[in-house]
Amino acid sequence: MRRWREDEDGELGGARHDERTLGLWAAAANRVLNYLTTRARPAGFRKLDQMPSPTPPRIVLVEDHALVRQLFAMLVREHLQVEPAGEAATIAEGLALARSTRPDLMVVDWSLPDGEGAQLVRELAPEMPATRWLVVSSREDESVMRAALALGVHGVVLKQSPLEILLEAMRAVLAGGTYYCERSSRVLMNSLRADAPVLGDALTLREREILRGLARGLNPKEIADTLGSSAKTVQNQLSQLKDKLGIREPAGLILYAQKNGIVTTTT
Predict the structure, then answer these.
(1) 12, exposed or middle or buried, with CB in 10 Å at 0-12, 13-18, 19+?
(2) pLDDT tens across 112-152, in order?
(3) Long-range contacts of 167-171 (CB under 8 A, 24+ apart)
(4) Do residue 158 and residue 224 come from a single domain?
(5) Per the domain annotation, does 13 fall within a domain?
(6) Domain boundary residue among 176, 192, 208?
(7) pTM given for the model
């Protein structure tokens, strides 16, 4: 993943962040986000490499600025060797186009003339469970990242990012992965970290082991395998742990563990 550096003039505020730390945060965030979006996928979801047809992926672009939209289309043609299935400038156009083309990937601007791109995801995802979602946004705002995460969006790229980041995101999301660019990952993880309480309640050894497994990007079944337990038992213990800490999101649990020295960013 391309590493991000702050502007020399400190445009984004604060001292220059260590690149290695940002890279670790982004990697950890994407492990958590992949886990979250995998759990949020509706019944019938299939990765592209599981689909029976070898035809090129259908990609729809929804962006109201013509110049930016045409630039995205050029990127798709030249680097993915695919002709976009269609282009739209509004939510209304995007809804109609998506329903007529049934795309494999929707690249959606968050801010559109007739509303937010979230509306497209909310309305179309239940109808098209196999469609992958990549959001682009000019807003480096935690409310955008949280909303995208809650909707099960597979990727977020800020428009301040270089074009190669968007290309990398499209490839990752088309391949069935999750891709939140480093800056969006940082905003989201900082927001979740702010919500993670530092509690004095002692955790059991098993609860600590489950937290370490989550930090490594393991799902409950994989954690159970490492502990010699059953997936159902671990799932129940995880649910009890969430109740105990008052933290519902796996990302929040990982951040709690980091704050309390149970894991480190390199776990």
Answers:
(1) middle
(2) 999 999 999 999 999 999 999 999 999 988 888 888 988 98
(3) 167/75, 167/79, 167/80, 168/1, 168/2, 169/134, 170/59, 170/75, 170/76, 170/80, 170/105, 170/107, 170/134, 171/80
(4) no
(5) no
(6) 192
(7) 0.58
